[in-house]
Amino acid sequence: MSRIGKQPITVPAGVKVDISGQLITVTGKKGKLVRTIQPEIEVVYEGNVINIINKTEGKTVNAFRGLTRSLVNNMVVGVEEGFKKVLVIEGVGYKANVVGNNLTLNVGYSSPVEFTVPSAVTASIEGNNKVVLESIDKELLGLIAAKIRQVRKPEPYKGKGIRYEGEHIVRKVGKSGSKK
């Protein structure tokens, strides 16, 4: 049985939840999110609490129950507070620039890498080496952050590349360090 799926979701005062069949719409001060729920799952909204209930029993249905609860909770938190991810660019001469919704990355390639950020995600630069991404959709934010990180993954010898803030890169000893 899913332990996460059993937990109720409390809805804050400024958030409006609309459920019509398998479509759930959450509206708040930051925006509006819409998601279609699995047909085996039922979402019940009473007062200011959302409960996720299985229509049938089974191992996969229980897994979907926990997933659905997490997705709906992320929708509620997203429209109320929003989500934020910070990417750190490390390396000599590595930098980023944002113009509109275009992110330009100079990360050691012969030409700059152009990356178009979707309109639902806002990108900004802190200093010369931090890219701050903000959105109300946690799933889209994580996907965009992962795609930006893919442009130049951190390498294990000097740590150069794009990494998440707080991410620990396991360092390797180079050739000269291993002979001692």
Automatic annotation (TrEMBL):
The record's InterPro entries line, in alphabetical order, gives:
Ribosomal_uL6-like, Ribosomal_uL6-like_a/b-dom_sf, Ribosomal_uL6_a/b-dom, Ribosomal_uL6_bac-type, Ribosomal_uL6_CS
User: Which family is it part of?
Assistant: Belongs to the universal ribosomal protein uL6 family.
Question: GO terms for CC?
Answer: cytosolic large ribosomal subunit
User: What organism is listed for this UniProt entry?
Assistant: Desulfoprunum benzoelyticum
What is a single Pfam family found in this protein's UniProt entry? Answer: Ribosomal_L6
Protein function: This protein binds to the 23S rRNA, and is important in its secondary structure. It is located near the subunit interface in the base of the L7/L12 stalk, and near the tRNA binding site of the peptidyltransferase center.
Taxon lineage: Bacteria, Pseudomonadati, Thermodesulfobacteriota, Desulfobulbia, Desulfobulbales
**Alphabetized NCBIfam families for the sequence:** L6_bact
Keyword annotations of the record: Ribonucleoprotein, Ribosomal protein, RNA-binding, rRNA-binding
Give any GO molecular function from the UniProt entry.
structural constituent of ribosome
Q: Does the keyword Ribosomal protein apply?
A: yes
Determine if rRNA-binding is one of this entry's keywords: yes
Q: Where is the Large ribosomal subunit protein uL6 alpha-beta domain?
A: 11-82, 91-164
Record's superkingdom? Bacteria
Task: Extract the PANTHER family matched here.
Answer: 60S/50S RIBOSOMAL PROTEIN L6/L9, LARGE RIBOSOMAL SUBUNIT PROTEIN UL6M
Can you say what this protein is called?
Large ribosomal subunit protein uL6
- Self-association or partners: how does it assemble? Part of the 50S ribosomal subunit.
Entry's Gene Ontology BP terms: cytoplasmic translation
